[in-house]
C-alpha cells in the first residue's frame, strides 16, 4: 500500500470530494483517479455498490496500481487527509463527521444497498457544506440523486457523468432529471475540472437545512428515531420491505422518497424494485408449496380407495391449476416488471 499522505491544508480551508457509483464503477473510477496528481489537495471518499461478501480489494488494488493517490479501506475513527482515497468497506455505510472523522457503520440499507451513496453524500454535505464536491458515475436506478440534492442545497458542487459516456446510464440520467448540476461531463474531462475546483474561492457558508441534518443523524446513530422521521414527512400506507415497519414519505424536493423509523430509506424506484423482488420470492415459495401439495396428494391417492382416492386426485388437479397460473405469471414477458429490478 502506498504511504498515507499528510494533509497539506488546514481543516478550515480543506475541501472534500465524494464519489458514488455502481455497475461499471471499476472502469469509471480507474479512469477518473488516474487523472489526479499525487499532491491532490483534498481527500476523496468513494462508495461503490458491492455485494456483502466481497472484500473490495479488487477496487482498492486497481486504484493503487493505476493512480498516484493512496487508496485504502475506510476505518472507523480515522481522520481524512488530503491526497488519500477512502473506500467504503463491503456491507458498511461510509460517512463523515465535522472535523473529518470517518464513520463506518452497519446501519440500515438505503436504496437497497449497504454501502449506499446517499448517506455518504448527505453526511459530507452536513459536515463540509460548500466545501464538498459530489460526483455521481455509472450505475443502475437512482441511488446518489438524493445525496447530490443535499450537496447542492448545502452549497456544494455537483458533477454527473454524461449518460452517453456511462456504461450504465441510469444513475447519471436520474440525477439529471431531478436537479440542475454544475457539470455534466465525460470522465475524461473530470480530472481537470476537479483540479480547478480545488482552487476556487469559497463563498460564505449558508446554514445547513434542518431536514438534511436530521436524515444524516438518523443514518449516523444506527438507532430507531421515530420523532426525527416524523418531522420529515407523513406516514403512508406502505410497509418497509426491510423491516416491515411503517413508511414515511419525505416531503422535501421533487424526488419521491420514503423512510422508516429504523433507518431504511428508498427512492420510489428503489422501493418498487424491492417490492417486485419480494413478490417474486413469495410466488416462487407458493409455487414450491403447491407442487409439494400436488405430489403429496398424488402419492396419497395411490394408497387410498374409492371416494377418498378420487378426492385426492381431484385436489391434486386443482393444485396443478394453481401451479400453471403461478408459472404463467413468473414466466410472463412483463417488461415493466423486468425494468423495476436492477441487474
Automatic annotation (TrEMBL):
Active site annotation, chain numbering: 22, 49, 143
Limits of the CheB-type methylesterase domain: 7-201
Catalyzed reactions: [protein]-L-glutamate 5-O-methyl ester + H2O = L-glutamyl-[protein] + methanol + H(+)
Family annotation (PROSITE patterns): CHEB
GO CC annotations on file: cytoplasm
Gene Ontology MF term list: phosphorelay response regulator activity; protein-glutamate methylesterase activity
Enzyme Commission no: 3.1.1.61
An annotated GO BP: chemotaxis
Broad class of enzyme this protein falls into: hydrolase
Keyword entries, A-Z: Chemotaxis, Hydrolase
Name of the protein in question: protein-glutamate methylesterase
Organism: Flavipsychrobacter stenotrophus
Amino acid at each position: 500500500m502506498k504511504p498515507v499522505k499528510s494533509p497539506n491544508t488546514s481543516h478550515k480551508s480543506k475541501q472534500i470530494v465524494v464519489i458514488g457509483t455502481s455497475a461499471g464503477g471499476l472502469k469509471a473510477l480507474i479512469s477518473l483517479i488516474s487523472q489526479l496528481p499525487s499532491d491532490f489537495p483534498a481527500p476523496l471518499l468513494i462508495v461503490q455498490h458491492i455485494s456483502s461478501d466481497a472484500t473490495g480489494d479488487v477496487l482498492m488494488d486497481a486504484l493503487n496500481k493505476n493512480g498516484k493517490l493512496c487508496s485504502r479501506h475506510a476505518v472507523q475513527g480515522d481522520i481524512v487527509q488530503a491526497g488519500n482515497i477512502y473506500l467504503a468497506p463491503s456491507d458498511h455505510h461510509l460517512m463523515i463527521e465535522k472535523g473529518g472523522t470517518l464513520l463506518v457503520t452497519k446501519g440500515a440499507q438505503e436504496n437497497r444497498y449497504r454501502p449506499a451513496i446517499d448517506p455518504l453524500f448527505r453526511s459530507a454535505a452536513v459536515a463540509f457544506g460548500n466545501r464538498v464536491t459530489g460526483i455521481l458515475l455509472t450505475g443502475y436506478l437512482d441511488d446518489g440523486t438524493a445525496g447530490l440534492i443535499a450537496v447542492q442545497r448545502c452549497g456544494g458542487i455537483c458533477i454527473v457523468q454524461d449518460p452517453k459516456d456511462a456504461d450504465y446510464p441510469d444513475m447519471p440520467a436520474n440525477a439529471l432529471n431531478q436537479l440542475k448540476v454544475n457539470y455534466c461531463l465525460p470522465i475524461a474531462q473530470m480530472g481537470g475540472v476537479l483540479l480547478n475546483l480545488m482552487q476556487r474561492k469559497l463563498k460564505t457558508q449558508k446554514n445547513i437545512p434542518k431536514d438534511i441534518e436530521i436524515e444524516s443523524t438518523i443514518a449516523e446513530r444506527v438507532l430507531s428515531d421515530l420523532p426525527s422521521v416524523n418531522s420529515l414527512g407523513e406516514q403512508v400506507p406502505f410497509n418497509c420491505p426491510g423491516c416491515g415497519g411503517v413508511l414515511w414519505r419525505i416531503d422535501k424536493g421533487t424526488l419521491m422518497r420514503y423512510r422508516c423509523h429504523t433507518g431504511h430509506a428508498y427512492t420510489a424506484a428503489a422501493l418498487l424494485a424491492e417490492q417486485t423482488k419480494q413478490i417474486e420470492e413469495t410466488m416462487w415459495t407458493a409455487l414450491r408449496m403447491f407442487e409439494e401439495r400436488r405430489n403429496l396428494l398424488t402419492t396419497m391417492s395411490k394408497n387410498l380407495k374409492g371416494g377418498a382416492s378420487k378426492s385426492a386426485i381431484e385436489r391434486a388437479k386443482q393444485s396443478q391449476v394453481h401451479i400453471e397460473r403461478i408459472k404463467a405469471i413468473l414466466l410472463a414477458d412483463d417488461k415493466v416488471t423486468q425494468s423495476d429490478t436492477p441487474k
